[in-house]
Design a protein that fits this description.
Layout (H helix, E strand, L loop, with lengths): L7 H12 L5 H8 L3 H13 L4 E6 L1 H4 L3 E9 L4 H9 L4 E7 L5 E7 L2 H11 L6 E14 L11 H7 L19 H10 L5 H8 L3 H14 L2 E6 L9 E9 L4 H9 L4 E7 L5 E7 L2 H11 L6 E15 L2 E2 L2
Antiparallel strand pairs: 1-6, 2-4, 2-5, 3-4, 3-10, 5-8, 7-9, 7-10, 8-9, 10-11
Helix pairs in contact: 2-3, 9-10
Length: about 325
């Protein structure tokens, strides 16, 4: 399915689901002034075509459930897709993409603690055939997860009717303690964020009211957020760029907060290492990327250096493998 396969209504529906992935079709249809049957049929068409998936994002930094690290990987010529597929097949990778620039692959990996991170970086990744070198940037804070971004196909009034929804979270950075029952629930929501309360309850061996209460507790804390995952290109965003920014230490927090508010910024995180910020942008074309670099980054106080890379192919997003 290409970008021409989605019409204006498809994109409006997906935008609404990006704001609230669990919104009932009846409520969604009413918000958009459409017929419920039409909305449900269009969503099912996208799901059946495997271009739209409903999943969940867990903030491992706040929950303490693992160490997230951003990886920039160089590979032997002609091996980018093969290495990317090997990385995407790993259950601990959330994001894998082929990119331009000094690295060939960008990857976000969630390791089960410091020991696991050491093993992955020092032993497992170098053992993948075709990998030449890796550079690791441990994540310190998710400033804007991808669940906080949505396409711009709704009017401000429609956005207010649809949102903010349970995916928006609270924006806090305070640690959050997961309960023993939370892990299985999170796995189920990553698998399908639109499982009904009855379906979740059956899999958790609880009553639907308990499944709902547990889910709403996680969503209300902001440690977990839901997402409607679809390729940005299908929504008309032809250019996806990953940018690595070096800023003065005193400017990191303000720069991150400023960038997180920009509608073109799909993700923003603070990392440890020579780079201070890692952001992912989606834009209509290369002219828009030029304007973003000049008018947005050019006016950013404390910016020392910026490296822009283009995403040429996404192999995995939000733990969802792209085939």
């Amino acid at each position: 399915m290409d970008s021409d396969s989605l019409d204006a209504l498809d994109r409006r529906i997906v935008t609404a689901l990006q704001i609230d992935a669990r919104m009932p079709f009846g409520t969604l249809a009413q918000a958009l002034g459409e017929v419920e049957r039409t909305v449900a049929r269009r969503v099912q068409r996208l799901v059946d075509a495997d271009v739209l998936r409903f999943t969940a994002f867990l903030d491992e930094v706040r929950s303490g459930l693992g160490q997230t690290v951003n990886l920039r990987i160089r590979v032997e010529p002609g091996r980018a897709d093969r290495v990317a597929r090997a990385l995407a097949d790993r259950p601990d990778t959330r994001w894998v993409a082929a990119v331009t620039g000094n690295a060939d692959i960008s990857c976000e990996l969630v390791a089960d603690g410091r020991g696991a991170l050491h093993r992955v970086v020092s032993e497992e990744l170098p053992a993948i055939e075709g990998v030449r070198s890796t550079h690791s940037y441990p994540l310190l804070r998710h400033v804007k997860p991808t669940t906080a971004w949505h396409a711009e196909y709704l009017t401000p009034d429609e956005v207010r009717v649809v949102g903010p929804g349970p995916s928006s979270g609270t924006g806090t950075t305070e640690p959050f303690e997961l309960q023993p029952s939370d892990r299985r629930l999170i796995e189920l929501l990553v698998e399908n964020a639109r499982y009904s309360w009855v379906e979740l309850a059956e899999r958790l061996s609880v009553v639907p009211a308990t499944a709902r209460r547990w889910t709403e507790r996680l969503l209300g804390s902001g440690v977990l957020a839901l997402r409607a995952e679809i390729e940005p290109e299908l929504l008309g965003y032809a250019v996806e760029a990953e940018l690595w920014l070096e800023t003065a230490p005193s400017a990191i927090e303000s720069a991150a907060a400023s960038l997180a508010l920009h509608p073109a910024v799909r993700y923003c995180g603070v990392v440890a290492g020579g780079q201070a910020l890692n952001i992912l942008t989606v834009l209509r074309g290369t002219d828009d990327l030029f304007d973003f670099q000049v008018t947005v980054l050019g006016q950013l106080p404390g910016l020392v250096r910026c490296e822009s890379t283009l995403v040429t192919r996404a192999h995995k997003r939000g733990f969802v493998i792209k085939r």
